[in-house]
Write a structure and sequence with these properties.
406 residues, three-stranded antiparallel beta sheet, 56% helix, elongated
């Protein structure tokens, strides 16, 4: 390694991307290309960074396994920053294995942390937690320790384990201070601030009460029957009944919960569930069918009893019924929560993260754009979507997750 390459590498470690470019901007050998790509990534020029890293990987070839694997890892991080989630994780896993075999523990850990962050974006909390449990951060640079603790904190937060999240964030803050990277310190500080912001609203008797994440966790532990409009399901203690793919049943459950301890008329339930204000006998017959389905699904949590004018929800035992709603209204809350990170997302990446079709996501984006809640940049295949940060509350409970809370 010549002196210019070494100096550029030291500048990148210190976060001085411009200083690194001054030393290698006119060079086209593979090490210089790799450093230029990393510098461009630090400056936010992701397409150019990706191109340079690919050229560097081809230049190193199969003869220089370690250097080639490092380029693959760097390109994977750029892809993550671009929210390109369509690539296969096998290439990154192979690079991590190569680096582990060649005793490059730091970059092998970096590769696996990129995989964890990708899983978190996709809402695969159980897989992310499984990978994190296998990682050994002893003896690695403090910046990587901070990233690992941040990932652990996000898994804990999105699983509503706030005490574990706070402990992980304290360790992340300590590691970030030792690393001395301002961007990393700012990220840890922002996540810690999210703990003190409202994460949801509790609706009861026509009143709303903002709740922090720890208060939501306490509510779930209280044994109350919670109709959760953030994750769309029913919850009592450790019993969870997801209804995200059964919107009619969830609409009925929410209407019954909002009226508790009273009942709801059949016409009101039909209007809420079927979006019609002129019910006929077919709607009433369909209501009986859907109530029967909801009664069977909610049997471990509550009874649904017929009354003279409609139906009423009665939880088991002496517990209350609570409706938990998101901090923002609308059917596209999860989509807005993803876009609120300030990063430009493609339609395909949003569809993958939400588990929806691209056409569904595209229609939702057009509606949000008409309401001036999101904006697009680029056209056709290069089109990306962005939204301003949602201030005053945290959207953690709206992010997609394949695991039920708890």
């Amino acid at each position: 390694m010549d002196s210019l390459i070494a100096a550029a590498a030291r500048a990148l470690v210190a976060g001085d991307a411009l200083g690194a470019l001054k030393r290698v901007a006119l060079r086209d050998d593979p090490p210089a290309l790799a450093l230029r790509g990393t510098a461009m990534a630090q400056l936010g020029e992701y397409p150019r960074a990706r191109e340079l890293l690919r050229r560097a990987a081809r230049g190193f070839g199969a003869r220089e396994e370690v250097a080639h694997a490092r380029c693959v890892v760097a390109e994977a991080e750029v892809a993550l920053a671009m929210r390109d989630l369509l690539g296969s994780p096998r290439t990154l896993a192979t690079a991590a294995a190569t680096l582990e075999t060649r005793a490059d523990r730091a970059n092998a850990l970096h590769a696996r942390l990129i995989l964890v962050r990708r899983l978190l974006l996709l809402g695969r909390l159980d897989e992310a937690a499984s990978v994190l449990s296998t990682l050994d951060t002893q003896g690695v640079p403090p910046s990587l320790q901070a990233i690992a603790e941040m990932a652990a904190a996000e898994v804990a937060l999105r699983s509503l384990r706030t005490a574990a999240a706070q402990a992980a964030l304290m360790r992340a803050l300590d590691a970030a201070e030792r690393a001395g990277v301002p961007a990393l310190l700012a990220e840890v500080t922002e996540v810690r601030a999210a703990l003190d912001r409202p994460a949801a609203r509790r609706v009861h008797a026509d009143h709303e009460y903002p709740l922090r994440l720890d208060e939501v966790e306490a509510l779930f532990a209280s044994g109350a029957l919670v109709v959760d409009a953030c994750r769309h399901g029913l919850r009592t203690g450790t019993i969870w009944r997801p209804l995200a793919r059964r919107p009619v049943l969830f609409a009925l459950a929410r209407a019954l919960a909002e009226a508790w301890p009273g009942d709801v008329s059949r016409d009101t339930l039909i209007a809420r569930a079927f979006h019609t204000r002129r019910p006929d006998e077919t709607h009433r017959a369909r209501l009986r069918v859907e109530i029967g389905r909801l009664r069977a699904l909610a049997a471990p949590l509550a009874h649904i009893e017929a009354t003279a004018r409609g139906f009423a929800l009665t939880p088991h035992g002496e517990h209350a019924v609570v409706v938990l709603v998101p901090p923002i209204d609308g059917d596209q809350a999860s989509l807005q929560a993803l876009l609120a990170d300030g990063t430009a997302w493609s339609t395909s990446a949003l569809a993958l993260a939400l588990g929806a079709s691209q056409r569904t996501v595209q229609r939702a984006l057009v509606e949000l754009e008409a309401e001036e809640k999101v904006r697009s940049i680029g056209r056709a295949r290069t089109q990306r979507w962005m939204a301003p940060p949602l201030a005053g509350f945290t959207t953690i409970l709206l992010l997609p997750a394949t695991l039920p809370l708890g």
